[in-house]
Amino acid sequence: MNNNNKFEGNTSLSLAQSEDDETLLELIKEIMTEFEIGCYNTNDLDDISETYNHEERNFFYKLTTIDGDESEKIIGCVAIQNLNDNEESCELKRLYLLPEYRKKGYGKKMMNFILEVSKNNNYKRIWLQTSKKFSQAIRLYEKYGFTEIEDNRPSTCSSSCNLKYNLYL
User: Fold this and answer.
1) Is 157 a residue whose pLDDT tops 70?
2) Coil, strand or helix at 128
3) Among 141, 134, 139, residue whose Cα is nearest residue 160
């Protein structure tokens, strides 16, 4: 599968590169601050290209647009990370969009793309954890068939990320 996806206009989804790490971390921190989620784990963001894109079946994508001065701007991101379990499962992580790009269909496009990547990498189940504060994202997950589950696994993102969801592919 192609690791890039061009949407209409000047927007595309592509694998994040090491030079994107700082901008992606700033974007994630901005969104966490917006939703008042203070304490969160960013170990997976210390070196995105090494943590995700060099490990087998782990991927971190950036959503970019070309703005008025023809420079690329990162406006969102999404990732999957292999859970290394016997169920062929991955975790959906870091699905974020800057506020001014929400409710424009980008979340759905990123979700369609990441589900395709998951299927093409032979994952059978996608697991995620989120906070009730991300109500728009929860509605998106549920539209795609994710169901809330009880799971005793410790949170890998934040103490406020106490909701866990599953989707069997």
Assistant:
1) no
2) strand
3) 134
